[in-house]
Amino acid sequence: MPHLSSLQQRYKGRGLIVLGLSVDDSEPVEVKRFANRLGISFRIAMADEHVLDLYGPIRSIPTTFFINGRGQMVRRVVGYIDPETMESYALELFGDNNR
């Protein structure tokens, strides 16, 4: 999650939006409290059945989706992504590798 926060800060000026989805059965207020305790700086939402139908199944956490500006999922990664790889995947969304 720190990598995601860092990406959000670095590339928000280029239109990058990081959105975390909780697949917990917890109440939204509990998820928000947890995110605040961790210092998460990106948006968090609850994944409902509709979201899971669109992007699921989500059987492992983390599962990371890279969605381009046209709303198309261009990459899905199950498991940990090191910071350098995550950044390169994010840069692909912009159609270039310029930092």
Question: What attributes characterize this protein structure?
Answer:
Glutaredoxin; alpha+beta; two-stranded antiparallel sheet; two-stranded parallel sheet; 4 helices; 99 residues
The fourth-level CATH homologous superfamily is Glutaredoxin
| Share of helix, binned | 25-40%
Unreliable runs, pLDDT <50, ≥5 residues?
A: none
* CATH fold-level label: Glutaredoxin
Counting DSSP H or I runs of 4 or more residues, the number of helices is: 4
Q: Briefly, what CATH class?
A: Alpha Beta
Distance between the termini: 21 Å
Main pleated sheet = 2 strands, parallel
Overall 3D geometry? globular
The count of β-strands is: 4
> What integer is the average pLDDT?
88
Number of folding domains? Answer: 1
Q: Return the CATH architecture.
A: 3-Layer(aba) Sandwich
Q: What gyration radius follows from the Cα positions, in whole Å?
A: 14 Å
Helix/strand class: alpha+beta
Sheet-strand content, in percent, reads: 15-25%
**SSE run:** HEHEHEEH
Account of the 3D structure:
This protein is an alpha+beta fold. The chain has one domain: Glutaredoxin (3-Layer(aba) Sandwich), CATH 3.40.30. Helices cover 38% and strands 19% of the residues. The protein contains 4 helices and 4 strands. The protein has helices at residues 2-11, 28-38, 49-55, 83-92, and strands spanning 19-22, 43-46, 63-67, 73-78. The strands form 2 sheets. The protein has a two-stranded parallel ribbon with strand order 1-2. Strand 3 (63-67) and strand 4 (73-78) form a beta hairpin. The longest helix is centred in the middle third of the chain and has 11 residues, at 28-38. The protein is globular and about 40 Å long.
